[in-house]
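For reference, the entry.
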Amino acid sequence: MSAIELGAENFERTITENEIVLVDFWASWCGPCRQFAPVYEAASEANPDLVFGSINTETEQQLAAAAKVTSIPTLMAFKDGSLVFSQPGAMPAPALDQLIAAVRELDVEKARAEAQAGQQGQSGDGTA
Protein backbone atom coordinates (compact mmCIF):
# COMPACT_ATOMS: atom_id res chain seq x y z
CA MET A 1 0.00 0.00 0.00
CA SER A 2 1.42 3.37 -0.90
CA ALA A 3 1.69 6.28 1.52
CA ILE A 4 -1.48 8.20 2.33
CA GLU A 5 -1.75 11.95 2.66
CA LEU A 6 -2.19 13.06 6.23
CA GLY A 7 -3.45 16.40 7.41
CA ALA A 8 -4.98 18.05 10.43
CA GLU A 9 -8.35 16.38 9.74
CA ASN A 10 -7.09 12.77 9.75
CA PHE A 11 -3.71 12.75 11.53
CA GLU A 12 -4.83 11.96 15.09
CA ARG A 13 -7.44 9.41 13.98
CA THR A 14 -4.86 7.62 11.80
CA ILE A 15 -2.35 7.46 14.67
CA THR A 16 -4.85 6.17 17.22
CA GLU A 17 -6.73 3.69 14.99
CA ASN A 18 -3.69 1.83 13.62
CA GLU A 19 -1.06 -0.21 15.47
CA ILE A 20 1.97 1.14 13.59
CA VAL A 21 2.07 4.38 11.60
CA LEU A 22 5.13 5.91 9.96
CA VAL A 23 4.88 9.58 9.03
CA ASP A 24 7.13 11.46 6.60
CA PHE A 25 7.12 15.26 6.92
CA TRP A 26 8.28 16.72 3.60
CA ALA A 27 8.05 19.63 1.14
CA SER A 28 8.24 19.71 -2.65
CA TRP A 29 11.19 22.16 -2.67
CA CYS A 30 13.29 19.93 -0.38
CA GLY A 31 16.01 17.96 -2.21
CA PRO A 32 16.59 15.39 0.55
CA CYS A 33 12.80 14.90 0.75
CA ARG A 34 12.69 14.07 -2.96
CA GLN A 35 15.61 11.64 -2.48
CA PHE A 36 13.86 9.91 0.42
CA ALA A 37 10.44 9.67 -1.30
CA PRO A 38 11.20 6.53 -3.42
CA VAL A 39 12.79 4.79 -0.40
CA TYR A 40 9.71 5.54 1.69
CA GLU A 41 7.35 4.47 -1.09
CA ALA A 42 9.24 1.18 -1.57
CA ALA A 43 9.02 0.48 2.18
CA SER A 44 5.29 1.17 2.10
CA GLU A 45 4.86 -1.35 -0.72
CA ALA A 46 7.00 -3.94 1.12
CA ASN A 47 5.06 -3.53 4.40
CA PRO A 48 1.36 -3.45 3.46
CA ASP A 49 0.30 -4.22 7.04
CA LEU A 50 1.67 -0.86 8.25
CA VAL A 51 0.31 2.62 7.60
CA PHE A 52 2.66 5.02 5.86
CA GLY A 53 1.57 8.64 5.90
CA SER A 54 2.99 11.76 4.32
CA ILE A 55 2.54 15.31 5.52
CA ASN A 56 3.32 18.20 3.19
CA THR A 57 4.75 20.81 5.55
CA GLU A 58 3.86 23.61 3.14
CA THR A 59 0.13 22.91 3.28
CA GLU A 60 0.09 21.60 6.86
CA GLN A 61 2.28 24.18 8.60
CA GLN A 62 0.29 24.15 11.84
CA LEU A 63 0.43 20.34 12.05
CA ALA A 64 4.18 20.36 11.41
CA ALA A 65 4.63 23.01 14.12
CA ALA A 66 2.48 21.03 16.58
CA ALA A 67 4.65 17.96 15.87
CA LYS A 68 7.74 20.10 16.58
CA VAL A 69 9.19 19.47 13.13
CA THR A 70 12.14 21.83 12.70
CA SER A 71 13.92 20.16 9.77
CA ILE A 72 12.70 18.15 6.80
CA PRO A 73 12.47 15.44 5.92
CA THR A 74 11.52 14.22 9.38
CA LEU A 75 10.38 10.65 9.90
CA MET A 76 8.22 9.73 12.87
CA ALA A 77 6.98 6.32 13.95
CA PHE A 78 3.96 5.73 16.16
CA LYS A 79 2.98 2.45 17.80
CA ASP A 80 -0.26 1.96 19.70
CA GLY A 81 -0.85 5.72 19.53
CA SER A 82 2.54 6.65 21.05
CA LEU A 83 5.41 8.42 19.33
CA VAL A 84 8.28 5.92 19.49
CA PHE A 85 10.73 7.47 16.98
CA SER A 86 11.42 10.90 15.51
CA GLN A 87 14.44 11.85 13.43
CA PRO A 88 15.17 14.50 10.83
CA GLY A 89 17.10 13.66 7.68
CA ALA A 90 16.74 11.32 4.73
CA MET A 91 17.16 7.70 5.76
CA PRO A 92 18.75 5.04 3.50
CA ALA A 93 16.65 1.96 2.76
CA PRO A 94 18.59 -0.42 5.08
CA ALA A 95 18.19 1.99 8.01
CA LEU A 96 14.47 2.36 7.31
CA ASP A 97 14.13 -1.44 7.22
CA GLN A 98 15.93 -1.66 10.60
CA LEU A 99 13.64 1.02 12.04
CA ILE A 100 10.53 -0.83 10.86
CA ALA A 101 11.80 -4.09 12.40
CA ALA A 102 12.58 -2.31 15.70
CA VAL A 103 9.15 -0.67 15.86
CA ARG A 104 7.47 -4.02 15.14
CA GLU A 105 9.39 -5.62 18.04
CA LEU A 106 8.95 -2.75 20.50
CA ASP A 107 6.83 -3.50 23.55
CA VAL A 108 5.15 -0.11 24.00
CA GLU A 109 3.61 -0.94 27.38
CA LYS A 110 6.98 -2.06 28.76
CA ALA A 111 8.67 1.07 27.36
CA ARG A 112 6.00 3.29 28.94
CA ALA A 113 6.43 1.57 32.31
CA GLU A 114 10.22 1.92 32.15
CA ALA A 115 9.95 5.59 31.18
CA GLN A 116 7.53 6.25 34.01
CA ALA A 117 9.79 4.43 36.50
CA GLY A 118 12.75 6.47 35.25
CA GLN A 119 10.88 9.73 35.73
CA GLN A 120 9.87 8.76 39.26
CA GLY A 121 13.48 7.84 40.06
CA GLN A 122 14.62 11.30 38.94
CA SER A 123 12.07 13.19 41.01
CA GLY A 124 14.69 14.05 43.60
CA ASP A 125 12.50 13.05 46.54
CA GLY A 126 14.86 10.31 47.68
CA THR A 127 12.53 7.45 46.69
CA ALA A 128 14.66 6.26 43.78
